[in-house]
Amino acid sequence: MAIEGFKGMTAKTIGILTSGGDCAGLNAVIRAVVHRAHHYGWRTLGIHDGTMGLLDRPLRYSELDLAAVGSTMMRLGGTILGTTNKGNPFAFPIPGKAAQNRSAEIIAGVRELGLDAVIGIGGDGSFAILRRLAQQGQIPLVGVPKTIDNDIGLTDTSVGFDTAVTVATEALDRLQPTAASHARVMVLEVMGRDAGHIALHAGIAGGADIILLPEIGYTLEGISRKLNALRAQGRNSALVVVSEAVRTVEGKILKVEHRGGARRLGGIGQYLAHSIADATGAETRVTVLGHVQRGSPPSAQDRLIGTAFGVHAVDLIAEGKFDRMVAWQNRRVVDVPLADAIARYQAVDINSGLVRTARALGVYVGQ
Ligand code: F6P
C-alpha cells in the first residue's frame, strides 16, 4: 500500500465510507467519487455503515461502478452506504464489559480489501477517529466535510447544511399562515448541536421574529418586549426559531433520553413555548423539526458542492495528497490540512454579517 505519490501508478482501489449522522447530499459525493475514480481507471469499494463495515467479519462493502451509482441516487437523501454515529473503535462499547480498542481490526480490514486510499465523508468527530486510524495504520486518507450543523472549520459550508436550512425555512413558511390564523406564537426547534447556523440562516430566510442561538444569551424580558412591540404594530402572531442547544434562562441544557441510552439535545422548544405563554399570556405551540432536516432530497447546492467535493477528493488521491480535507472557500473547492479543520470548530460568529442583518430587521437575537 502506497502512502504518498500515486502519480504514475496504475491499478488502484479506493474505499469510501460515510460516518456520523447522515444528511442530504452524501449520495452526490459518492456518485462523484465513483465517476472520477472510473476516469482514472480505479476501483471504488463502498464500505457499509462507516467503520463498522471494516470491523465486522466478513467485511461488509460493495463494489461501486457507474451502474451502481446510476442516475437516481444523487437525488436521494441519506447514504446508500449506511452510516453510524456510535461505536468509536478506540473505545468500542462491549455490553457489560469495559470498552475495547478495536482499531487494529479496522486497519486489518483496510489491508484485506487492498485499499490504496480511503475517502471518509464525515464531521469533526468522525474525522478525529478516521485520522487516528489513518496514522496508526499508515492509511492514505482524504476527508469530505458533511454535517447539517455546519460547524467544521476552514470550509464555508458542509454537505447537508443547505438542505437542512431549506427544510427549516419551509417549516417557517408553513407555520406562518397557521400562526396568523390562530393568533399564536409558534416556536420552531431546529437541530445544529452547539452551533446555531441552521437557526440563524433559516430564521432570517423564513422571516422569524425571534432567533435564539446557543452562542448568544437571551432573556424572557427581551422576548416579551419583542412580542409586545409586534402586538403594538398590529401583528397577532409571531415566529420563534430556537436552536436545540440553547439553554434555559437558568443555564440548563435540555436533553432527551432515548431507549437504548442515547441522550440527545431536545426540549428547549417546549420550555420556551411554556415560558413565553406564562410571561406574555400568548397562546403558543411548538414544532420540533428533528430528523426531517436530515432526510430530505438534497438541495441543488448540496448536490453541487457534494459533487465538486467528490471529484476533488479523488484528484487529491491522484496527486498523492493525503491527510487533507476538501473545503469550499470563496466560491470554489480547495483543500486544507485535516488536522486544522478538526481544530477550528466553527460556531456562529456573534459579530457576523448575518447576526447584524437579523438585528437590522428588528429580529430579537438575544443580547
Ligand atoms: O450532528 C448532526 C445532528 O443531526 C445534530 O444536529 C443532532 O443534535 C444530532 O445529530 C442528532 O443525533 P441522532 O441522529 O443520533 O439523534
Description:
Strands 3-2-1-4-5-12-13 form a seven-stranded mixed β-sheet, sandwiched between helices. It has a four-stranded parallel β-sheet with strand order 7-8-6-11, with helices on both faces. Strands 9-10 form a two-stranded antiparallel ribbon. The N and C termini lie far apart (54 Å). The longest helix is centred in the middle third of the chain and has 22 residues, at 161-182. α4 packs across α5 (124-137), α7 (197-205) packs parallel to α13 (353-360) and α8 packs across α9. It is of the alpha/beta class and 367 residues long. 38% of the residues lie in helices and 18% in strands. The protein is built from 13 helices and 13 strands. A hairpin with a 5-residue loop joins β9 (255-257) and β10 (263-265). The structure holds 6-O-phosphono-beta-D-fructofuranose. 6-O-phosphono-beta-D-fructofuranose (F6P) binds next to β10.
From the N-terminal CA to the C-terminal CA, the straight-line distance is: 54 Å
| CA-based shape | elongated
* CA-based gyration radius: 22 Å
The helix content, as a percent range, equals 25-40%
Number of strands: 13
Sheet-strand content, in percent, reads 15-25%
The small-molecule ligands in this entry are: 6-O-phosphono-beta-D-fructofuranose
- Which segments are poorly predicted (pLDDT under 50) over 5 or more consecutive residues? 1-5
Mean pLDDT: 96
What key attributes describe this structure?
binds 6-O-phosphono-beta-D-fructofuranose; 4-stranded parallel beta sheet; 367 residues; alpha/beta
